[in-house]
UniProtKB/TrEMBL annotation:
It comes from the Bacteria. Residues 649-662 have a biased composition (Low complexity). It comes from Fibrella forsythiae. Coiled coil: none annotated. This is Carboxy terminal-processing peptidase. InterPro entries: ClpP/crotonase-like_dom_sf, PDZ, PDZ_sf, Peptidase_S41A, Tail-specific_protease, Tail_Prtase_C, TSP_N.
Length: 698
């Protein structure tokens, strides 16, 4: 069987600046015309050859068959500008105008191994960065006054580059003032504010000094790769080594995978069973602002640090305390970073394995006992299986044992909780589906040539044939979507929760030294999308994900989270359906009845009403990205926002990674798990269970 890379963990990409503007600035007059200097970075001959190899590889073998053209060149040009200056705070409009001579030439440059545009544009960025750094030093030499009635828009996605130096200086003055006020409102003394901000920008400057030619080359090639799709990347040798180490090394510390995202360190994934995962206080996408040691140690800003240096601060001896300042991806503009205390320890991977609990649900005077199987990731010990070891870690084996145990406890139905499950082993997703169906296809995989392989469960035995619900959310991805889609297509269970992530693509890692055997040194790797997943009904899981039969309110919108939030994501499409025999467990008529029951509760149940109202208020508050720079007004904004958040958090839905653990201590009520149980209760009341008749779709 072919091997498929379906992990949701993003590639480790270096980037100096990202969507949140926090970095350095300039004083006085500077020339808007760049002239080369002795400090400029230059490409190597090897990089020129690698550029040609990557171009050949992506244009011939990527799933999306794209021809090089002037229009593609313009997209690469735009992507590269965003790589360097996404918040549009470093370059002037005149700089961008001067770069336009390259806009329609990049396609030819890629074929010819010409890196002139990449390094010319970067060296201008480097010059502007240093000029801004001088502005920061001078501005921070005096304390800010927060009495003037002015405001700042923290969202610069649709902003324009400054047209003049005066406009740029005013932008940076407000940006720095906003950061200082944020720290002050978080309780920092004026002297501490100045110290923290100076440290932040020194880190940024130090980070710039470490940028090498291979980093610039990597950004440029990623600007090209990401025109094809968001999961296609070039990994420079140093980044490739780090990526491979992270995929294979033993896991210690807090149990979070990190990457640089602009000047921030971002959490890309939580390791099931790790302290961060079990704390339920972190989510993928959280940005780490600062790190402190022990209960009282001072906070060290990690803004501008390279990921290796940040990891050194975060890791430490087992049993010691580390405090992290975090900015959530769902944070409002007025929110200050939250501080999370966590105890370091050796990652207990067994705690990331499937586990169960039993919940009691009373509905219309009848009490039901339901089993819940919590599945954080689709795991499989491939090496142990190859050696035919006994007790090999396997999702399917573990879940089968849990189901057998729940059947002994005489549960009335089972919920499979996949919230926050970012994927994992494809074969386990197929085998797990087989526990609930007699046998048949589970997923279709199509390559760039149009050839389709149908992958099936061939075991006719069924472990569980009772009432089944699958609970998903926006962070259920890849293998989770394959399982949920198959259960839905077979009409075997009811899918409830939020729209899933929508990652329906397969990536392969290619070592470029195999293409350039004469190169003695490492030249890096390419992670490239080569295939797509399709449901057995022919619909792609790409982009759209899996739409639940009954959708719960969610604050994680498709515009901000998931595959559909990426401009270059491969589109949804459809191929021919596979031949399969669906059950009649879940009929259209039953689904309508269950949905009606849920809609009634949504209007009358206090917990559900709070959830729906919290989501509405959150989305409304999220739209406001302009904050006051006047201390009195900002305090009022902050207090109002905190009141709303407090109301929302009274019964906050446990979405994503926060919901995937089941500690023995008494836990906060999980409204959405309770609602999944109620849906199962309605299903039983309607007689929607234990129907074994099969109906063919062909």
């Amino acid at each position: 069987m072919r091997k498929y890379l379906i992990t949701l963990v993003p590639v480790l990409m270096l980037s100096l600046q990202q969507e949140s503007p926090t970095a350095s600035a300039s004083i006085g007059q500077h020339s808007t015309v760049w002239t080369p200097s002795g400090d400029d970075l230059k490409p190597t001959v090897t990089q020129e050859r690698v550029e040609q190899a990557v171009t050949q590889l992506l244009t011939r073998y990527h799933y999306r068959k794209v021809r090089l053209s002037d229009s593609l060149s313009a997209v690469v040009w735009t992507n590269y500008l965003k790589e360097m200056d996404p918040s549009k705070v470093y370059f002037l409009a005149s700089d961008v105008t001067s770069f336009e001579k390259y806009k329609n030439q990049i396609d030819d440059a890629l074929v010819n191994g010409d890196l002139t545009a990449a390094f010319d544009m970067y060296n201008v960025f480097r010059k502007r960065f240093n000029e801004r750094n001088e502005f920061v030093k001078q501005t921070l030499s005096k304390p800010f006054s927060f009495t003037a009635d002015e405001s700042y828009n923290v969202d610069r996605e649709k902003a324009q580059w400054p047209k003049s130096l005066d406009e740029q200086n005013d932008l940076w003055r407000k940006m720095l003032k906003n950061q200082a006020l944020e720290l002050k409102l978080a309780g920092k003394a004026d002297t501490s504010v100045a110290s923290l901000m100076n440290s932040r920008y020194k880190n940024l400057s130090k980070n710039l000094g470490r940028i090498k030619s291979e980093d610039v080359f990597q950004w440029y090639m990623n600007a090209f790769g990401e025109t094809l799709d968001p999961h296609t990347n070039y990994l420079a040798p140093r980044t490739a080594d780090r990526f491979n180490e992270e995929m294979s090394a033993s896991l210690e510390g807090i149990g979070a995978r990190l990457q640089e995202d602009g000047e921030y360190i971002k959490i890309t994934d939580l390791v099931p069973g790790g302290p961060a995962f079990r704390s339920k206080q972190f989510t993928a996408g959280d940005k780490i602002i600062g790190v402190a040691q022990g209960e009282t140690g001072p906070v060290v800003s990690v803004i501008g640090m390279q990921v290796d240096d940040a990891v050194k601060l975060i890791k430490g001896p087992k049993g010691t305390v580390v405090r992290l300042q975090i900015k959530s991806p769902s944070a409002l503009a007025t929110d200050v970073p939250k501080e999370i205390r966590i105890v370091r320890e050796k990652i207990k991977l067994e705690e990331g394995r499937a586990h169960k609990e039993v919940i009691d649900i009373t509905e219309e005077g009848h009490t039901y006992k339901f089993g819940v199987v919590i599945l954080p990731v689709f795991y499989r010990d491939f090496e142990g299986a190859r050696r035919r070891e006994s007790d090999v870690a396997s999702t399917t084996t573990d879940v089968k044992n849990l189901i057998d145990s729940l059947k002994m406890q005489k549960v009335d139905g089972i919920v499979i909780d996949l919230r926050g499950n970012g994927g994992g082993s494809l074969i386990e997703a197929i085998n797990l589906t087989g526990l609930f169906i007699p046998k048949g296809p589970v997923v279709q995989v199509r390559d760039s040539g149009g050839e389709t392989e149908v992958m099936a469960d061939n075991d006719p035995s069924v472990t569980y044939d009772g009432p089944l619900a699958v609970l998903v959310d926006r962070f259920s991805a890849s293998a989770s979507e394959i399982f949920a889609a198959a259960i839905q297509d077979y009409h075997r269970g009811i899918i409830v929760g939020g729209q899933t992530f929508g990652k329906g693509t397969v990536q392969q890692l290619i070592d470029l030294n195999n293409m350039l055997p004469k190169e003695q040194d490492k030249v890096g790797q390419v992670k490239m999308t080569t295939q797509k997943f399709y449901r057995i009904n022919g619909s792609s899981t790409q982009h759209k994900g899996v739409t639940p039969d009954i959708q719960f309110p969610s604050r994680y919108s498709a515009e901000d989270f998931g595959e559909s939030s990426q401009p270059s994501a491969l589109p949804w499409d459809q191929i021919a359906s596979a031949r399969f025999d669906a059950t009649n467990f879940i009929t259209d008529k039953l689904t309508v009845k269950l949905r009606d029951k849920y809609e009634q509760r949504l209007k009358t149940d206090a917990d559900l009403k709070r959830e729906a109202q919290a989501v509405t208020e959150f989305k409304k508050a999220k739209e406001n990205t302009t904050v006051s720079l006047q201390e009195s007004k900002r305090k009022k904004e902050k207090e109002d926002a905190e009141k709303k958040v407090a109301n929302m958090e009274k019964a906050a839905p446990q979405e994503g990674a926060e919901a995937a653990d089941a500690p023995k201590a008494k836990k906060k009520k999980d409204t959405y798990l309770t609602e999944a149980g109620r849906v199962l209760a309605d299903m039983i009341a309607q007689g929607g269970q234990n129907k074994t008749k099969l109906t063919s779709n062909n």
